[in-house]
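Hey, resending since the last one bounced:
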Amino acid sequence: MLYSSLIFIYGFFPPSLLIYRIFSEKLRKTVLFALSMIFCLLCSPEMLVFLIFFTFVNYVVGLFTGAFRRKKLLSTLCLFIGVAFDLVMFFTFRTEKFIFLKERLRIPDEIFPIYFSFITLSALGYLIDIYKKRIRAEGNFINFGLYIMMFSKFFIVIRYSSFRKMLDGLSCDNSQMGKGLKIFVRGLVRKVIFADSLYMLYIAVKSINVLEMSVANAWLGMTAYVLCLYFTLSGLTEMSTGISCCFGMEFPPCFNYPVFSTKIRTFVSKWHIQVLQWFRRCLLKPLCDLSKNRLCHRLAYILTWCAIGTWYRTDVNGLIFGGLLGFFLMEEKFLCRLRLLKATGIIYTCMAILMFAVLISGDDISCSFRYILAMLGGNGVFADSMTLYLLRCYGVILMAGVFFSSMIFRNIAVRCGKTVADIISPVLTVVFLAVCTALISGSGHSAVLILNF
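The structure tokens again:
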């Protein structure tokens, strides 16, 4: 069950919020945990059973890791068991090689792999923080269960210490609920209006034979893909943030308008902020601490980006994507020293990101390279009648997508002032909710795009 489904928006979310507000503050954690279990149950009974099992294993491993904090060998062994278990589960639900196990467990294959990608990072980060003595092991199963299973946190990666502070300060006033609903609808607009429309453009281009594809069509398709991916992921995370805000928890933003960045490094720093911070904290820093050698640090940086690429797409394409992106990020420092990115930075970044995105979107590595060849004019056709048709049908939504994903839109919104925003935002929230409701049943399904992740 996605946040953008009518069942969730009108059938699950409002009753859950009402039930949550009825109970006293002492019982709200328990109520929120019960609501999360009901959410998982509605997705699939098998999903609920598996998530309880997964949560319990990490809870017990965390307790043992914390109990043996002064015994390095035993603590390391516990961490190894926990990490091995989480990674085995991750690859089980993210690769086709273990499809027989997924079929036996009868876990829904529509959206659960996406949820589980974020859940795995949360569980691993929790165990690593206990091992590094940054936090103490959680003794309350409900508190830890909410960290893993809370239905409004499935697309959010946050440190357990920060989550625990929010959990201890749960509140539910009208202003916070109003703010949360506004954020939720904003994310819904990104998903339903922009992502689903751009997905239709991407599918239209993908239906063209790559060996006959024109240069313009190839670039149009990949632009639609990147924007669709951005609006899908940012929309889902904003909806998750908005729902959590309604329940009294304010999560930090995950995206910061990356389009029109002047460097790849800047683009990356504004994309999936919490996820990339997790990899830096839990993988890059420990690898760099193993040696002070500069070459080892560069190798650790490449390996970290290979892991990030594999997290996004668990196959050869993802591995190559991560490795190449990590290499380019290191070498970009050289271009910055030569001051080559001041005038051409935006063009260079956009072209590079679109090229890298081909590796994520392609069915396999050979298909990706054929698509890149088409983008570079390998088919000998710059544009055709299909190009004009696509621009006529999707030109407006494409330009709107570029505008609303850039810092230009954010700057304009800031300059409008808080007073103006407070006046018109409630009206816009209601209008956009009505528009999205009308579009959901007949819109495209951009979530399909991230099922490869």
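The chain has a mean pLDDT of 85.

Sorry for the duplicate.
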